[in-house]
Amino acid sequence: MPDQSIPEARTVKAPPGEAVSENASPGEGVSRRRLLATAGATGLVLGAAGGAVGYAAAPAGATPLTSLGADRAMFHGKHQPGITEGLQARGHLVAFDLAAGASRKEAAALLRRWSTTAQRLMAGEAAAQDDTDVARDAGPSSLTITFGFGNSFFSRTGLEKQRPASLDPLPDFSSDQLDKARSNGDLWVQIGADDALVAFHALRTIQKDAGSAAKVRWQMNGFNRTPGATAHPMTARNLMGQLDGTRNPKPTESDFDKRIFVPASGSADPAWMANGSYAVVRRIRMLLDDWEKLSTGAQENVVGRRKSNGAPLSGGGETTAMDLEKTDAKGALVVPINAHARIARPDQNGGAAMLRRPFSYHDGIAADGTPDAGLLFVCWQADPLRGFVTVQRKLDRGDALSTYIRHEASGLFAVPGGAAEGEYVGQRLLEG
Fold it and tell me: What amino acid positions are annotated as catalytic residues?
């Protein structure tokens, strides 16, 4: 779980009753499934990111609704949605395998259906056919739906020559106890939203759209803190109680695109991956019973940061640069040599970086009484060998946190760039 922080959401606020993204053009329509409130004078409330948003005021004595449900991410764009947006309150990760006998033609038809569904649902509209009405009363709720291709997809569809070298299987790591049935897959879908019913509706619709072309290989459910639950925007906490993601690369950094997205030209990747990215997905069990036996001080030494505010043990605040050479009165390093935050730092790994965008998960209590809980780790990078693999190999050689986690499932997926108007995701691969 490398030490990096999630950027703010790209969804932007619009006039009352409307929600568009920063990439929206003036002619783009507004969701017809707007957040409802009784008509009246227009008021202002604070949204999850602290910006002003409008709503129609409710009658006196009634609790007004916020615009959380009206926030909208855009389907069409340079990159697929669900990568640079901020953390979402609810998420589903699901992998599919193509049905026996399904070909490139069936795969193209499936991606076309899925893209149509994603576009409609992200706009807050009903599914094109047989909508279940689960999300009838909600707005888009920042819904994002993201699609990727696994290594096996290319041999199943006769597209081996288009398979990127970056999709070569990940190496084995010492903390791996991987369940093959819950790893990899021909196709991968990431769903995120700020409302649980909106996210489930998308999951159910995507599954139904698969029809006879593909079947679910595995599916995992995750969550994060709901936007607005804290007094001000802040780095999320994981189930260990630590601020998780302090040093994530940010879109404002000059080399952000170079590190996260495949360039449109001059890349060794095939042309269809232009403006795309690679997603590494890991189901990481946190051994919470063991972790919670540690004192707060011992937990902080494992991580290398204060549990209260995420500040490095060397001093300062959350964003203060960590002083790796600082020692205490006895001459011992203040940030232990095997602290997670020390080992995971990009400047300790040749500049290797990845954009982490995870979900926590809790799948109940195991037969031995321990919680089946942890992190659905999702990270994005232009090159997984230079990103995830470089950092994980370093962590594998002595990270103090390894004692308290276990990697139980894994996947690597090529996520193409966003679909232009009139296109479906993956069209340049499947029809190129």
Answer: 244
